Amino acid sequence: MINKQVSSVEAAVSKIYDGATVMIGGFGEAGSPIELIHGLIDQGAKNLTVINNNTGSGHVGLAALIENKRVAKMICSFPKSANSLVFPNLYRKNEIELELVPQGTLAERIRAGGAGVPAFYTATSVGTPLADGKEVRNINGRDYVLEYGLTADFALIKCLKADRYGNLIYNKTARNFAPIMAMAAENTIVQTKEFVSIGDIDPEVVVTPGVFVDQVVIISNPLLESVLVSAGEVYP
Amino acid sequence: MINKQVSSVEAAVSKIYDGATVMIGGFGEAGSPIELIHGLIDQGAKNLTVINNNTGSGHVGLAALIENKRVAKMICSFPKSANSLVFPNLYRKNEIELELVPQGTLAERIRAGGAGVPAFYTATSVGTPLADGKEVRNINGRDYVLEYGLTADFALIKCLKADRYGNLIYNKTARNFAPIMAMAAENTIVQTKEFVSIGDIDPEVVVTPGVFVDQVVIISNPLLESVLVSAGEVYP
Amino acid sequence: MSEQNIGWSRDQMAERAAQDIPNGAYVNLGIGIPEKVVRYVPEGREVIYHTENGLLGMGDAPKEGQEDPELINAGKKLVTAVPGASYFHHADSFSMIRGNHIDICVLGAMQVAENGDLANWSTGNPDSIPAVGGAMDLVAGVKIINVISQHVTNKGYPKLVGKCTFPLTGVGVVKRIYTDLAVIDVTPLGFKIIELAPGVSFEYVQERTGCRLIAV
Amino acid sequence: MSEQNIGWSRDQMAERAAQDIPNGAYVNLGIGIPEKVVRYVPEGREVIYHTENGLLGMGDAPKEGQEDPELINAGKKLVTAVPGASYFHHADSFSMIRGNHIDICVLGAMQVAENGDLANWSTGNPDSIPAVGGAMDLVAGVKIINVISQHVTNKGYPKLVGKCTFPLTGVGVVKRIYTDLAVIDVTPLGFKIIELAPGVSFEYVQERTGCRLIAV
Fold it and tell me: What is the Cα–Cα distance from C142 to C134, expressed in whole angstroms?
């Protein structure tokens, strides 16, 4: 029988190793798998390359992972925001590397990685500093830069409902990067609010088919990053 | 107010012009927009380039469009099947052009066209006759061929439910090429079995968001290609 | 230089920009003044708002008690979804942008050059944290890129210039600019004044612009 | 040459191939003998079948009266969806294939070369209508490509050869071949017999093979 459910966050993140590339879902707090990230902090893997749109808020979740010096490099589109304090400090001290990628190029690179497309052309960033050093090709009269697919060793994502095959559906704009990260990672680890029986999710509405999912852990009442940040929480 | 519904097949296909590139949804009979194709035959546009996985069956639908000499060129992955008689005859007489594309490359080229990606690399077809004349690039130790995005002037597709914004959902494996063709065509024309009120389709389950759709016509009881073929029907 | 009472207010700039959004348009609005555009779209026009984090059919801010922290816009503000909306993942969302499916994007700007070059993501200051978000994708992919911006910086320097000195967001992408002083089109011959704010003269705008303007 | 009673039947070939499909595998089966594999997967193993036209979790043929002409497989036969299935569009479906997410594909073959080259889409005959379908995508993307095929053609020519003479489907892609005579692995040193059908000798297989075989 196929059953991708694991009993604890600890078990779910246990195989993440030093130096791994980890995609982490979420756009700001929406879709951020905060329990999985905290589990990764507890687990101890370091020297990670992390792919996320942002760099977290306050001193919890992704920001805490960075603050605890587990992240050697961030690949993201928007590393600063109202409550992002941790990354800017480390970046100014040259203690963390940054690969800045336009948000749509980031999404497409992840999707390409998951779809077995090693590289593609896009007009995004042509003529800007983010195209420096990149191959430019003129196709039908317009210039495009060559961008490479992104894959990862692990993905940590959050969903609304999952079944034992790993079929997933999401909540509203918390979907964001999760479906494409699930495709692009060798090992996709999911925290779900609800775990349902096979057949409970209509085959027409599955967003992430189970083939992209490896492990599912139930977190019925996930923490809210904004609440923790407002309360001044620091993890661990 | 936005209302993409049009009152008849005739009105829906009226703008298709001689020499246009037309994507037609469907994989075999599943998803084939047979009423729209028949409307296109009636409308008379010719010298078309048609993109579909196959070349139709019997003497109805896509096969009838070809038989009526409206199609100058087919771009497809599998131009022959049990009941495809029309295309092979014309092809052997050199009266129709064929661009043969592996099915996954065809799908990805259409998706790329819709996503604004002009070209991408894929391992599919490397070392085969279908890679002849194509650029090959070694990326991280593996060879890939360069493939170009496909766009079209029009797409004809079939869905299960549509609303006045053009949001669509499909039935089972009739979904196939329709969502990506809707993205890749300048003008996407849809035949729907049901037309529903705004809000009746849950935002979480919309497959084709309305931004990709231009015109919707209701065909409550669509013909079945297999039934027509079995009955020996010939269109018109 | 106190010019509080000269030209259009921020809301008036947004209102003016809203006039150019036709019925049925798919629109993406940047953070800041562009967000205000939604309030001023004329009655009778139905417009669908895209937010690049995965929602087509974005509505107003939620009423109290109806907030969902997982329903936000690209600026990470709480929003709602209108009836007829749809959710999708980030790659699909940027397919709409990159694939030329969104009709109009209204953005803020740090500088616009007379050839339509836009700079709105970085001052190039080596001490600042670089952050680009979706700006480069929007300007490369959306059919019409319009800018709403004060005509000059806080320090009084022109934002409309012959050539951008800040790092570019996109090359030759801007079509129209709504400032507090004027509506200006980017044309093959350079910036052309389309409309002046009440009480503002061509010369007044020209003095505050970094390159030659073409009169109405 | 009548060899009806020598070696494995078509069903036995499928049965042998089924033994190598582990629990939890995501599997794509080609048209013809490979389709029979599903019947022989050993009890206790849960296998999920992918069909490239947009279904993961393909089930058996429908019962009479439950057919839906819009629920078909890649061979355009009527099928069903199992509980826990999902539908998706063609680009997403081939992302599963191209992106190495499908574990095993079992295909038919016209020729297999000792380096793993596969030819299964065209004889190269200029009179025939070329048709490739998803074969090139499958062999380029699926993790393990296994072949089920008669050992020789209808006319008695070897299908396992030193070098394919027919146009290739993929280069160096085949891992294992199940024929009516043997199970054969593609190894760096060439074809290696893993198992012989009952009553079939190594020499018998070698005589019917276009290149040197390595014994068990």
Answer: 11
Contact: B169, A123; criterion CB under 8 Å: no
- Do D and C touch (≥3 CB pairs < 8 Å)? no
C48-65 pLDDT, tens digit each: 999 999 999 999 999 999
ipTM of the complex: 0.97
**What contacts D98, CB < 8 A, 6 or more positions away?**
A115, A116, A117, B104, B108, B122, B123, B124, D137, D140, D141
Give the angle subtended at the CA of D121 by the CAs of D116 and D125, to the nearest 5°.
115
A-C CB pairs within 8 A amount to 146
Decide if pLDDT at A184 tops 50.
yes
Active site residue D64: no
d(CA B78, CA B99) in angstroms, rounded, equals 10
| B213/A contact by beta carbon, under 8 A | no
Domain borders along chain D are 10-214
Chain C residues within an 8 Å CB radius of A87: 129
- In angstroms, rounded to a whole number, what is the distance separating the alpha carbons of residues B122 and B144? 5
| pLDDT per position as a tens digit, B106-146 | 999 999 999 999 999 999 999 999 999 999 999 999 999 99
Q: Which chains, if any, share at least 3 CB pairs under 8 A with chain B? A: A, C, D
**Chain C touched by A102 (CB under 8 Å):** yes
- Domains along chain A with CATH numbers: 9-103+151-230 (3.40.1080.10)
Class at the top of the CATH hierarchy for domain C10-214: alpha beta
Query: Quick check: C167 contacting A, CB < 8 Å?
Result: yes
Give every CB contact of residue B70 below 8 A, 6+ residues apart in sequence.
B40, B41, B44, B45, B46, B47, B48
d(CA C86, CA C92): 11
pTM above 0.90, yes or no: yes
3-class state of residue C193 by DSSP: strand
B112 touches chain A (CB under 8 A): yes
**Does residue B179 contact residue B159 with C-beta atoms inside 8 Å?**
no
CA distance C91 to A53: 13
